[in-house]
Amino acid sequence: MSDSDDTDHDDTDSDRTARETPTDPTANPADEQAFTVTPYAVEGTIDYEKLLERFGAEPLTADRVERFPDHPAIRRGFFYAGRDVDRYLEAAESGDPHAIVTGRGPSGPMHLGHVLPLYLAKHLQRETGATVYVPLSDDEKFLAKEGSFEAIGEHTRDNLRDILAVGFDPERTRIVVDTADADLIYPLAVRLAEYLTPATVEAVYGQQGTVGLQFYPAVQAAHLLLPQLVAGRQPTLVPVAIDQDPHVRVCRDVAAKESLPVEKPGALLGRFLPSLEGPGKMSSSGDAPSIGLADDPETVAETIRDHAYTGGRATLEEHREKGGDPSVDVLFQYLRYCFEPDDDLERIAERYRAGDLLSGELKAIAIERITDFLAAHQRRRGKLDELATELEPYRLTDAERRRALERAGVPSILG
Amino acid sequence: MSDSDDTDHDDTDSDRTARETPTDPTANPADEQAFTVTPYAVEGTIDYEKLLERFGAEPLTADRVERFPDHPAIRRGFFYAGRDVDRYLEAAESGDPHAIVTGRGPSGPMHLGHVLPLYLAKHLQRETGATVYVPLSDDEKFLAKEGSFEAIGEHTRDNLRDILAVGFDPERTRIVVDTADADLIYPLAVRLAEYLTPATVEAVYGQQGTVGLQFYPAVQAAHLLLPQLVAGRQPTLVPVAIDQDPHVRVCRDVAAKESLPVEKPGALLGRFLPSLEGPGKMSSSGDAPSIGLADDPETVAETIRDHAYTGGRATLEEHREKGGDPSVDVLFQYLRYCFEPDDDLERIAERYRAGDLLSGELKAIAIERITDFLAAHQRRRGKLDELATELEPYRLTDAERRRALERAGVPSILG
């Protein structure tokens, strides 16, 4: 029995997970037909409320939103659900230890969509002192055949510079790379693998092509429990797009085992930041255009002008007459959730709906906000020294590693 | 394609393995009924010649035996088969690099049967300069639920002292503990896991209870390829009881992948050293009595007197008249394969068969040989200083770790 303040009842988190996977015979077929959301497939028009119900997560009520440090992604409903959010908020409010885990799979250069959760984490860290853990799963990217270890190593080093450029507080931030921190991650994963059967992994993740991918959920569980293993039992929030919720639930089931001195990690569940070309997930792989963190202002402007899906009308006359639709305009979503912090947003929406603001003008606003954001990011990144030196203050110390292994019941063989 | 001097033809090693597992529908039922030999079950009366045929290994011909450094376990047929033995012998004869891997699963104190392969490896090292790798799979023992990590850690430290007491040459010996050397072992295992499908693992090892055990064959493949990854392509011999051959074959298939700069590890396949109480495997788990490495002479004598299965007759008169049967006498097997190096053996056998030598007298000879052996082992063990200090010269250096990771195509992220 877990002694965590649990909101779940008879069935475990991943029991519920199993019912949501397309292969599960108990899934409601009518429901499934409407849309599919798993960590590996997002299809159909997503009904976020129905998804919440299907996943059994808590809505992010107005009261909860109010208790978070102010941030557009929370205030304006990009993150709209969660698990054990109250526990996190209580700790944040009372100054007790609390943590955020927000990882990165280094399969390529990072784009805008990848870095925004890191900036949110930095904001929460600054406001309430949250410890932030950033695990990089180079092992998983190799196993998922997204490149050789050499190529993934290149991406990892590049991504690390972007993560460092975010400007986390080194005292309260730990960055972990699975292969470079294998001395810690592997023994922890073996310890947690005790609780992960092949059947559970297959139910949540589907059939895996290699035994490495089958094992990886144990590594991911180690990531999500790391703050508690290093620094003791504490609420941990994992901000992810809602399609990644099954990963969190697998770890929650592992965390509930009585012999682990941890509580279940919570989740902050988000909508999908739409691809530039329209609804769906923003992706750095494939052909979907995206805004890279290294893009210069001209490239950003060109990418947005050429590819951004707008809520504008077919002709200028029609737009002036009927007005645009901000709810489907991709750039408006960007402004809404990330880049337009003050009351300008409502004015922009109104003028767009009224036909006073044209799509091109909305694009120009977004281009300005995004290039400003990127310029600041690139400036910080440009100032970074040699990677290993910069990373050092963010790596787990030997004492922290030892403590984590001891808490997990995997004390070092040689002391 | 592997460029190793391969004796295998169309099918891969583990294709053949699959046919030998009890769950495989293509196994010959008549053959299966006679006896079963898998890494997890040895049943029935073993026909070693038939087993050889079934496994598709090479017999250890008189010519091969002649080319090995003289040792009773080889000369007298305890090791009676192998894979790619000629390649190993060629390198040993011509002074080219060659290696032996002989591991230990630290699930309890070591007994006599566990340490004998290590003494064989030491002998081969002394005679031809073989590099010896000794991996300790504490991860696997935890995953196989043979104890908590704390308990397995205790056994690991205890077993390490016994391994150190063998007296390997530190210049040519590397001892590896999976959790303590995870910085190296985990990235290598991930690299090799690329080639291990769940189906392969299940065919060879059966269904596994956790994803950790499913992943473990990748760790074991890392063990067997370690000498080549550290020091370059070279023949590697893995001396194991024949029931462990499937482990070697899985690794041979992995090694055959063209992107790995290694050749398939070879095997030296042995009979089972019988349990004191009779045919079957000697085991430190369960209730079977065994001779522990820490036993004092009185305990050894008592254990042998009370439990050793003899080839003697029911009564003294009958024994004098009909003679004993050395071929089923457990202590005679011990003397034959390990402890009676010179021509005394044949005389002992003759006198036993003739009824001149009584079971009790044979026991007395064995007790003397075994206690002498243990006394020398215990003396060396007793001289050891603090474990970490003693182990240090046997651990992989940072340069060796880096080289192994580079050869495997897993260069360190941070240089």
TrEMBL record, chains A, B:
The protein's Enzyme Commission number: 6.1.1.2
Please cite one Gene Ontology biological process associated with this protein.
tryptophanyl-tRNA aminoacylation
* Presence of the UniProt keyword Ligase in the record: yes
Q: Which Pfam families match?
A: tRNA-synt_1b
Q: Does the keyword Protein biosynthesis apply?
A: yes
* One GO cellular component term: cytoplasm
Gene Ontology MF, one: tryptophan-tRNA ligase activity
Q: Region (Disordered) spans which residues?
A: 1-34
Provide the alphabetized UniProt keywords: Aminoacyl-tRNA synthetase, ATP-binding, Cytoplasm, Ligase, Nucleotide-binding, Protein biosynthesis
Annotated family: Belongs to the class-I aminoacyl-tRNA synthetase family.
Provide the protein name.
Answer: Tryptophan--tRNA ligase
This protein's species is Natronobacterium lacisalsi AJ5
